[in-house]
Amino acid sequence: MRRPISLALQxxxxxxxLDARLEDLAVPLRSLDEPAVRAAFAxxxxxxxxxxxxxxxxxxxxxxxxxxxxxxxxVWLHKRCPAHGPSAAVIENDIAFYRVSSKDxxxxxxxxxxxxxxxxxxxxxxxxxxxxxxxxxxxxDAVGTDAPAHDFSDQQPNKTCTxxxxxxxxxxxxxxxxxxxxxxxxxxxxxxxxxHVAALVARKQRLDSVQLTGGEASLxxxxxxxxEWLCAQPAVGKVYLPTNGLLFNRPGFAQRLKPxxxxxxxxxQFDGRDTGANPVLRKAKPERQRETLIRTLDKLGIxxxxxxxxxxxxxxxxxxxVVQQGLRHRNVRLIAMQxxxxxxxxxxxxxxxxxxxxxxxxxxVVAGMGGKARTEDFMPIPCSHPNCGWVTLxxxxxxxxxxxxxxxxxxxxxxxxxxxxxxxKEQMRGIVGTKGSLGSRIAARVGRWLIRPKDVFGIxxxxxxxxxxxxxxxxxxxxxxxxxxxxxxxxxxxxxxxLRHADSWSRFPVLP
Length: 512
Prior knowledge:
Blueprint lengths: L17 H13 L3 H7 L7 E9 L6 E9 L2 E8 L3 E8 L6 E3 L12 E3 L45 E5 L10 E2 L11 H15 L2 E7 L9 H9 L4 E8 L20 E6 L7 H6 L4 H14 L2 E8 L8 H10 L3 E8 L5 E2 L11 H11 L10 E2 L9 E8 L2 E4 L6 H8 L7 H7 L6 H10 L8 E6 L10 H5 L3 E4 L5 E3 H8 L13
Parallel strand pairs: 5-6, 7-9, 7-19, 9-10, 10-11, 11-12, 12-13, 13-18
Antiparallel strand pairs: 1-2, 2-3, 3-4, 8-14, 15-16, 16-17, 16-18, 19-20
């Protein structure tokens, strides 16, 4: 048995700023050639080394050196903690869906994986047809509206494509899978909410979208005041409402959303059928109530996203059914698939070496769409990091469903679409018809004049990270943020993997 060589690296420790401490770990890691990395992490001869990075020890949550490698078709993350030794996790089940990035900076790229280059973010955070000034050079994302309780990766250089603002830690379900482990009884006061959002806008100038979330946000006694104030903010593009939908079926509730329908997108928890995933994941059978709510919102013209959480051995058979439910309703604009990750509450067992990944979701969609989608139709979202999210797009009109992502040359239009989560009609038309044979490009360019933004139906896959799959390269490029209870914008994956447990709600009032 080979004995791994010693790495002259230590787990990061306070009191210096986190990014400076991470740099101390990264400098010697970047200096290692491939034989040294193989010896340090005891890699097999058949393992293909892809890159090195920084990760977390799953036991103590210290930052540690890590190596990303291909083993068979799978991509693995191997790491070593000075105190707790080696550990490993699967991060992708099919190498064809893994990318290294031009943004990877905490280690070194060794080759073997496809590379995805994203231009540097220049600070342009405006929506379609708008413009905004640069962020104030004195702005500091590490300072919220009161004293921070923890340190975290600097997110100020990154765009905030979406930010979650949790307004309660209470929920009316007790799901077996809940990244926030929502089981509290506290609420964020309205004035604190306003102060936190206003401070973030002052630092970022504009926010593409803000998610009003929890727990279950609709439990908040001032839910409508929170929502209406947020919708009135000119610097906020869209307002997202993640919900399990149980309270939305109350008489008159959905109807109150109608005046806000140009600003609001309802993100409805929609994991599958009552005979499938629902009772396993949610300990409930909400299929009928959710179908009723979808029909109600559809008639009111309120746009929706169906959010499907998927767990290994539970959800695979429900993927096709969820996609078909989304296609049936014109105001379901997006299906978001989120492979379950081991943060917060996860009561289904399972191992970090056996999980659903991005490629499993893609293959499930393709298998369930009767030839309307191919694996090649999915592409990385050109924003934070290519392993943070993939998407494909369809046009639905005149009873026809046609994939349009296959007619987009992402490399050719990268500078036009990078960091843009909201495309207007002209931008959408501009990217369609840039790829394919001459005949298909001509057909796509003719057809794009018939496409309206409301005709576009997307399927997005968001593989969030946990303490096992944590890659600091992704965290440092993050655009999916969450406000902690002090108002700091933190990477969503970092917050849930290493910070949430220490961010107490105890100073906030109890839910009436």
